[in-house]
Amino acid sequence: MEKNAKKSQMDNVPEEAEEKDDADRYRAPALDKGLDILELLAEQRAGLTRAEITKALGRNASEIYRMLERLVARQYVIRSEGGDRYALSLKLFALAHRHPPMERLISEALPLMQRFADEAEQSCHLAVYDRGNLLVIAQVDGPGTWGIAVRLGSRVGLVDTSSGRTLLAWQTPEQRAHMLAEHTKVKGEVAIDHAALEAACEQVREAGFSRKDSQQIFGVTDVTFPVLGPSGQAIAALTCPFLKRIDDYVAPSLDEATQMLSATVQTLSMFREDGAA
């Protein structure tokens, strides 16, 4: 009888209450604190001080201090040069490269890249930041007899390429500093001082894209637009290494190809902003 009474009582417990009991039963307070910090910082483009984090989360200063130190030690969070502000590092972004969302980005990008290549009659490639330089994760050839193709899986320079400077231009100062601290030169990469690089990134940001002569191949004009994520930061860069025809064939001009690439990236960035990845 007693067992039946207990069973009857359990049967009367609302489903929401059972779910709440399960959530409470499997709580991990330390993990919750760490995730709270990461989720809070994900919404802050300029980072937060420890006091601001403590106030926003309604926790005591000592537990936030310990958790922040662990997140910094594990490189999920970076501390500003002055040591007073904290922001997300790119580690979570790097981990995402090994996860299906990166495959989803590629699958969404490839049809758009193919359409651009067919209409502009130029090749294009998509690159992301990865461990100190750029990784080419997708590449489509143009339909013509000639073209410039960057081999899939290639690593290209962070500071001397249109793709690299575009990615750097659409990061927070803390994230850009972290990327440059991790920077590893690729073969042939041209060095540039910090002030000149900052100026170049600012020019790209103001223009909304990068269009300049390639520093790797003579006769090529690199056109690059950032693929923006939900936070407004660049998660990838789409580049067209434009080749100008000098024979009698009339192909889309550099300006026309630039407009086509812009439209392609706007569609792809909207995909990211919709949270589909």
From TrEMBL:
Q: Any idea where the IclR-ED domain is?
A: 91-274
Nucleus in keyword set: no
Task: Give the signal sequence positions.
Answer: none
Give the UniProt keywords, A-Z: DNA-binding, Transcription, Transcription regulation
Task: Tell me the superkingdom of the source.
Answer: Bacteria
Name the PROSITE patterns for this protein. HTH_ICLR, ICLR_ED
Positions of the HTH iclR-type domain:
28-90
What InterPro entries does the database record attribute to this sequence?
GAF-like_dom_sf, HTH_MetabolicPath_Reg, Tscrpt_reg_IclR_C, Tscrpt_reg_IclR_N, WH-like_DNA-bd_sf, WH_DNA-bd_sf
Q: Where is this region: Disordered?
A: 1-25
> What's this protein's name?
IclR family transcriptional regulator
